[in-house]
Structure formats: structure tokens, C-alpha cells
Amino acid sequence: MIDLSVLRESPDSLREALRRRHVDIDVGTLVELDERRRRVRSEAEQVRAEQKRVGKEISTLEGEQRQGAIASAGRLAERYKRLLAEADELDEKFQQLWITVPNMAHPSAPDGTTEEDAVEIRRWGTPAGYEFRVRDHQDLGEALDIIDIERAAKVAGSRFAFLKGKAVLLELGLIRFAVDQLIAEGFIPVVPPVLVREEALFGTGFFPSDRDQVYEIERDELFLVGTSEVSLAALHLNEIFETTDLPIRYAGSSTCFRREAGTYGKDTRGIFRMHQFDKVEMFSFCHPEQSWDEHEYMLSIEEKILQDLELPYRVVSVAAGDLGASAAKKYDIEVWLPSQETFREITSCSNTTDYQARRLRTRFRDGTSNRLVHTLNGTVVTSSRTVLALLENHQQADGSVTIPAALRPYVGFDSIAP
């Protein structure tokens, strides 16, 4: 959630923030509810104070005065009860609306609502010029017998795949390669839970807005995470750091699950958009004054890894109206896919400022007071998009795929051949 002071002191700036986000929330209704709930609760407390005062006087009174005071205390108690119930109801109405307010986009986030509105920052690498018919990753995977979509559909339905043989070693090597790079940068490796309570998804801002994307285990009141960002953010739920502890950086390696609701018919071929995949995710808890530098730092790590993998890419700044609820600013890195002759998203990196920390109550000691930390997250590699990008970009005329030099010590071979 954002700071309530924005609503109370600068409602017009909130209106402008929502306009940039293209989110239809009536700020006037929020202001009215906030004022009413505070007014009613204040009145309730005044009645409660009067009730206590009258209660103390009763023991000093006699006869009709005593009976009158008892009756007055009873009326005050009923009125207090009604006002308290009304204040609680108004609090609930306000909270249900307030939790839908997204983070305020950073001024540097471009205007717009779609992927096409993202602004390109830079490019790296040159797409290879192929003197043979380029295959997409599914054709390559089937010819090399390392990806099986057809049998996965029999077992689990659409948007699943069997990775086999050297594709498995490629995935495992890729994950270990990425984790090693992050350890060298001071990140702490973590294998987090992939089943979490609702509070973790609410705290990270995925609930209520993205609830339809999450698999729910109703019997156990647990949810499968779509990213280890959720588990890592909630790792320090309701905790207070020392300033000297910051930044705290984690490298989470986990399986992820996404329903991909609303993407029917989109990217159904191959393993680009899966219900299940493995991922290495960066997560940082840092001082508010350092978070924008931290954002650029995490992006540089993502870029360095893609350069080591010899994958041409471009960096874009995501449009304000296309940001997730918790992000103030987000970079996407889009890798070149030869089969599509275009750039497609492979990783992202977001600064959520204090939006998640406020929900999760994660703070740090700053002198005599406690302040909210800032949280950031960034994808490093995935078992789906990074693997397919490697297959497509490093394919050879004979149908084989070469392995980038940086990965060879991790996978144990130089190429995948028919």
C-alpha cells in the first residue's frame, strides 16, 4: 500500500498517479470514507470517555441521581457500541478500496498501457545472420529429443512440457551458473517454500489484483507461488532490521506456477508461456535512499548474465499503465528470438519502493524511529524462456545447438547434437 498521507495531504497527486496507471478508483470516495471513519471513531472515543466519567460518579451518588446516572451510563454504552461498529464497518469499506490502489509510478516510467508503449533504453549484441532455415525452439527440441510437448499434454494438459536428456542438464547448469554469479555479488542463495499463505501474496501486492493468476490449494489454505519473490519478501514479515544490516540480498531458486489466465491462444507453441517452470530470482531489502541505485545494479547483473550467455537483447522501461500493482518502475529485458524475428521478454527487474514493506510491516531502525525498507526483485534465468533463447540463438546448420563458453563447465558438453 502507499502512504495514507498522500491521500490526506495531496489527493490531487494521487488522482494524477491513478490517471497515469489508467486505474479507475474514485479518490473522492476514498477521502470521504477516510474522513468519516476517523470522525466516527473520534466520536466513539469521546462517548467512551464520557461513559467512564459517569461510571466513576455513580459511586458518589444516591437515590434518583444515582439511578439517572446509571441510565445515562447505559445509554452511553449503547451509543458507544453503535459508533464503534459503524467505525469498524467504515474501516473495512475503506480498507477494501485502499488495498486496490497500486503503487505510484516513478516520474521516469513512460506513459502508456501496453508492451508497445515501453521505451527502449539500450541494446546489446547483434542477432546472428543465418544462412539456413531457422527453426523455432520446439522444432529444435523435438528433433534433438530434448523437449516433449505432446506427451506432456497427455499427462497434464496444455502449457506443460517434458524436458529430457541434455535439456535437463542445460537447465540445471544454467541455474547453478546464475546462482554462482549472484553468490559472487554477495547474494544469499535460498530455496524457498513454493506454497505460501494468503498473507504473503497480499503482502507482495499480488492479491487482490492478480488472484486469478494463482493456483489455490483450498483444503490447506495455501497458494502456489508464481515467483519466489513472494516467499522471499515474506521471509522478513513483521521484522525490524538494523540500518547496518542493509542491503540484504537473496538469490531464490524455485519452481514457479502460473495459471496464465487471460492468455488463451497466446504463445501456445513451445515453452515460452508455461504453467510450471523453474527460476532464479534476485530479491533485495535496502535503505530507501539507495533503492534507485539498487535497481540499476540489479539490472546490470541481469545484463551481465545474458552477455555471458551470448544472447542479443534490448532493455526497455515499462509503461506506467503496464506496471504490476506493486512496482514503481520496471525494466524488462527482451531477448532476440530468431524464429519470431523480434525481441521478447526474458527477464524483468522492479523497484516496489515501500509498497510491499508497508503491507508486510518490514522496517529498519533509523535513529530513534523505525522506517519502512524498500524492496526490489529481478528475474535472472528461467527454465523456459532462457533455455528456449539459448536453443534458438545458438542453433547450427546441421541441427545442433552450441553451448556458450560460460556455461560449458556447468553442463559438461559443448553442444547438443542430433
Tell me what you see in this structure.
The protein has helices at residues 4-9, 11-21, 27-58, 63-98, 137-143, 149-156, 166-184, 198-203, 229-234, 291-308, 355-360, 385-393, 408-411, and strands at 119-124, 147-148, 162-163, 188-190, 195-196, 216-217, 222-224, 240-242, 248-257, 276-286, 313-317, 329-337, 342-351, 363-366, 369-372, 374-382, 401-402, 415-416. With 418 residues, it is of the alpha+beta class. It has 2 domains: 4-98, Serine-tRNA synthetase, tRNA binding domain (Helix Hairpins, Orthogonal Bundle); 115-416, BirA Bifunctional Protein, domain 2. The strands form 5 sheets. Strands 1-11-12-13-16-10-9-4 form an 8-stranded mixed sheet. A hairpin with a 4-residue loop joins strand 6 and strand 7 (222-224). Helix 3 packs antiparallel against helix 4 (63-98) and helix 5 (137-143) crosses helix 12 (385-393). The two termini are 53 Å apart.
Furnish the topology, listing elements before pairings.
Elements: H1 4-9, H2 11-21, H3 27-58, H4 63-98, E1 119-124, H5 137-143, E2 147-148, H6 149-156, E3 162-163, H7 166-184, E4 188-190, E5 195-196, H8 198-203, E6 216-217, E7 222-224, H9 229-234, E8 240-242, E9 248-257, E10 276-286, H10 291-308, E11 313-317, E12 329-337, E13 342-351, H11 355-360, E14 363-366, E15 369-372, E16 374-382, H12 385-393, E17 401-402, H13 408-411, E18 415-416
Parallel strand pairs: 4-9, 8-14
Antiparallel strand pairs: 1-11, 2-3, 5-7, 6-7, 9-10, 10-16, 11-12, 12-13, 13-16, 14-15, 17-18
Helix pairs in contact: 3-4, 5-12
